């Protein structure tokens, strides 16, 4: 996944009917996501190409690097990211191929992406409650184990 932090990119992808490029779209800094599907899906193939139209800065988030960070995160963070990725993949699968793009335009997709979050927050709340119950059970059992020594 990439984030444009300065400059501007022009993105275009070939049409299904021919190898000619269909109309393109602008990628603006701090507004659009570039190749987010590649972060969550191991089999994502880029559908088009982006070209800088002026000096630009892009930050890359590698899926392998993100996985390493997630492994060291609290359980709730891991659960949130897993659920988000799952909902993102489901959403992508609901799209027709011609609707897919390497670019997610904020003005077109931000509300859909945000809609995943409340549902995820509910799931994480349930997970955290289970985790607290588990921790309480362990805390209650520890003194008994110590006194048995």
Q: What is the approximate shape? A: elongated
User: What is the first-to-last residue Cα distance?
Assistant: 54 Å
Structural class: alpha+beta
In round numbers, the mean pLDDT is 80
Classify the helix fraction into a percent range. 40-55%
Biggest sheet layout:
3 strands, antiparallel
What is the number of beta strands? 7
Number of contiguous helices = 4
The quaternary state of the protein chains shown equals single chain
Cα radius of gyration in angstroms: 21 Å
Low-confidence stretches: 142-149
Lateral arrangement of strands in the main beta sheet: 3-2-5
List the secondary-structure elements in sequence, H or E: EEEEHEEHHEH
Query: Which strand-content bin applies to the residues?
Result: 15-25%
Question: What key attributes describe this structure?
Answer:
149 residues; alpha+beta; 4 helices; 50% helix; disordered C terminus
